[in-house]
């Protein structure tokens, strides 16, 4: 694993890979950053305006006019805006991870081909069938929805709700990486074996570590292609070179 990490790190800092790494990072930050800003501003204004007029619409104005005074206060607005921005920031973080993963999906064939030419020169005969990949991804999405629904009731449990809600998203992240990388470096037979074995224990453990890094702002977006490079080396050594 240490040798793979060193090799992947050297590959990642090459000029070509670095240029490709900037693309998903910038697109994700720009799209979700602007979306989150406008959504949060409009949402907070709507909620505050609704709360301010609530007492006037349903109750006696003299009795409940203090409610408007509170909602229009600087302290209330500052606190309320802070909470909204924290929630929106978390959404942006998770959404950026998966948007970056989608963008990286289009770059993966280029990256895997580059790694193959640099280190292995594998002639991939009988490549993975596109229909099989599509069916597998649809099945994963269905399982993801099912796992997500099962995990929803646990959101009300303190301290464990964050871990529980991460389970379906990690499943989706891990499975999509397996399909994305494996289908570009393995032939059909070896890919199906890898898919049945879930890539092996080291692959799953690596994806878990990468998913944790993805939850750290900036790092997860920038190092997505490093994850692809690392997993490419891992799959080649396990299912092609068998070392």
TrEMBL record:
Q: How does it sit in the membrane?
A: Multi-pass membrane protein
Q: Which UniProt keywords apply?
A: Membrane, Transmembrane, Transmembrane helix
Mind telling me which residue stretches traverse the membrane in this protein?
17-39, 83-107, 155-174, 218-236
Q: Which InterPro entries match?
A: CysZ/EI24
Principal place of residence = membrane
Give the matching Pfam families. EI24
Tell me which stretches of the chain form a coiled coil. Answer: none
- State where the protein is found: Membrane
Name of this chain's protein: Putative membrane protein (EI24 domain)
Please spell out the taxonomic lineage of the organism that makes this protein. Answer: Bacteria, Pseudomonadati, Campylobacterota, Epsilonproteobacteria, Campylobacterales
């Amino acid at each position: 694993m240490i040798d793979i990490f060193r090799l992947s790190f050297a590959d990642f800092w090459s000029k070509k890979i670095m240029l490709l790494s900037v693309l998903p990072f910038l697109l994700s930050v720009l799209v979700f950053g602007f979306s989150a800003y406008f959504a949060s501003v409009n949402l907070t204004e709507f909620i505050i305006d609704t709360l301010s007029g609530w007492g006037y619409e349903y109750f006696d104005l003299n009795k409940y006019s203090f409610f408007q005074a509170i909602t229009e206060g600087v302290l209330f607005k500052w606190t309320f805006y802070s909470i909204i921005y924290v929630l929106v920031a978390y959404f942006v973080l998770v959404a950026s991870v998966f948007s970056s993963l989608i963008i990286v999906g289009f770059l993966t064939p280029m990256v895997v081909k580059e790694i193959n030419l640099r280190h292995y020169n594998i002639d991939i005969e009988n490549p993975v069938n596109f229909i099989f990949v599509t069916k597998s991804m649809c099945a994963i999405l269905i399982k993801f929805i099912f796992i997500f629904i099962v995990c929803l009731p646990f959101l009300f449990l303190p301290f464990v709700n964050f871990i529980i809600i991460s389970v379906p998203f990690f499943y989706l992240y891990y499975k999509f990486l397996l399909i994305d990388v494996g289908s570009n470096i393995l032939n059909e037979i070896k890919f199906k074996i890898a898919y049945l074995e879930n890539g092996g224990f080291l692959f799953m453990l690596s994806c878990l570590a990468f998913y944790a890094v993805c939850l750290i702002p900036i790092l997860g977006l920038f190092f997505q292609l490093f994850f692809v490079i690392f997993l490419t080396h891992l799959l080649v050594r396990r299912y092609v070179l068998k070392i």
